[in-house]
Amino acid sequence: MSVFSNKTKQIELTRNRYPDLKKGPYADLTGQDVDYFSNLLPGRVLTDASDLEGSNTDWLGTCRGSSQLLLRPKTTDEVSKILEYCNGRKLAVVPQGGNTGLVGGSVPVFDEIIISTQLMNQIISLDDISGTLECQAGCVLAALDSYVSDSNLTMPLDLGAKGSCHIGGNLSTNAGGVRLLRYGSLHGSVLGLEAVLASGEIIDCKSTLRKDNTGYDLKQLFIGSEGTLGIITAVSILCPQKPKSVSVAFLGCESFETVLSIFKQAKHSLGEILLAFEFMDSASMDTVRDNLNLTSPVSEFPFYVLIETGGSDGKHDEEKLTAFLENQMSSGLISDGTVATESTKIANIWGLRERMAEGLMVDGYNYKYDVSLPLSKFYQLVDDMRDRVGGLATRVVGYGHVGDGNLHLNVTSPQYDEELMSLIEPFIYDWVSKYKGSISAEHGLGFKKRNFIYHSKSKSAVDLMKRMKLLMDPNGILNPYKLLPDN
Ligand code: FAD
Ligand code: MLT
Ligand code: ZN
């Protein structure tokens, strides 16, 4: 999944692309600083430009910083000592997990020190009765899923980047993914966490309890705060039972209205076994076909729906899904589709949907948007964007977690094009705001979207966020130029 290869050299430095943005009141790194960290983390300090290349560049290949130092702590105590030192010296830092974030939040803008959770990958405990998993923040999501799977549990979130993203990164972005429909957001499934403030103070909110109403629920502050309030070092999370049987249906639909009708029926008829309800349009299907050579198991349609079910009784679940699909066929909503119960076939179908981000990158530059919209307006944005950008774009595609009201609208062009960008932004944010959507459903604001926060949040809310930031990170060393708007 790496996109860094030889491309990095051609990626413009963020500070050059945004010449008006100036480095904040932070110190420059000195040899003495490097010596301090080398003593603290022997053999776990990277300073070589080529070693830092991948970590300076985001997954999309659209943001590139110029950090000269990457630190790899193993313990919370080490993170605490790093931050205490950086705070004293006013050295800015960027926390980094799997570096799969899609809004430029995980990489430096200027020369911030990268604090990577790569080596904080220990599982602490698993209670297979309550389903509570405790682990360090740098555990890779897929590795955790495979670990808990041995106890017939599953992680309550699943996303295309699972092979690289870290659970700490997931919490920091409040990642959604394809199973939010069933298991809800991380604000519900995270039971506790440990975080380190900019001062180095360790905040212990490591509860493993399902119910705990003693005072403010501080852990929620860190979930979705994108590394601007503290570094998450450990997590406790509730894992649901792993479904005994999983089935996937992939269906062709004539219109977006049909997609919505099927969704309504699916909720009604599949009820508790519905795991995921995703959609993609024909331009999305063209993307993975043209750019990744994937093949569709169904004939050509304007829209496609992917339904996943999972329950505790394979026979019963399959019967339920079959009855539902027969119903949809006889009412004329579906005319072509396929069902898979075997793992390879299921993975191939999921590949069509989950590898979309990878497929889009092949076009060159990817203008990526992730919005929440009322379902009545959901696809109209894609049509309007297509009309607006016309032939300037290579393609305009719509796909996403329709079951959660979350649209991924993506535009591509061979390289970054200012004229095309000026057609897309701020038009898209104004459009979303007009229909009372959110300009970031699940990816966060990061570097790219911070200045559009007012399209989704009131001034009073942003003002309080700024006051909280000042309280928790008075020198502003934690992930500057991210999430909060420029003054
Ligand atoms: P990073 O990218 O390293 O960091 C993300 C942000 O969190 C940064 O601001 C960083 O500073 C901060 N951060 C990281 N670790 C910590 C920490 N320990 N403490 C404090 N701050 C920290 N996202 C979704 O929501 N749903 C999807 O379905 C989805 N699918 C994706 C599919 C692909 C192919 C890709 C490439 C990305 C996808 N994403 C999705 C986006 C991304 O994977 C998620 O945002 C993920 O949660 C990021 O985790 P990470 O470990 O890679 O974090
Ligand atoms: C997805 O759902 O595929 C991810 O959020 C990535 C993307 O938006 O491309
Ligand atoms: Zn998504």
TrEMBL record:
It comes from the Eukaryota. Its cofactor is FAD. Catalyzes the oxidation of D-2-hydroxyglutarate (D-2-HG) to alpha-ketoglutarate. Also catalyzes the oxidation of other D-2-hydroxyacids, such as D-malate (D-MAL) and D-lactate (D-LAC). Exhibits high activities towards D-2-HG and D-MAL but a very weak activity towards D-LAC. PANTHER family: D-2-HYDROXYGLUTARATE DEHYDROGENASE, MITOCHONDRIAL. The keyword Membrane does not apply. It catalyses: (R)-malate + A = oxaloacetate + AH2. One of its GO terms (cellular component) is mitochondrion. It comes from Patella caerulea. This is D-2-hydroxyglutarate dehydrogenase, mitochondrial. Its EC number is 1.1.99.39. The keyword Flavoprotein applies. InterPro entries: FAD-bd_oxidored_4_C (IPR004113), FAD-bd_PCMH (IPR016166), FAD-bd_PCMH-like_sf (IPR036318), FAD-bd_PCMH_sub1 (IPR016167), FAD-bd_PCMH_sub2 (IPR016169), FAD-linked_Oxase-like_C (IPR016164), FAD-oxidored/transferase_4 (IPR051264), Oxid_FAD_bind_N (IPR006094).
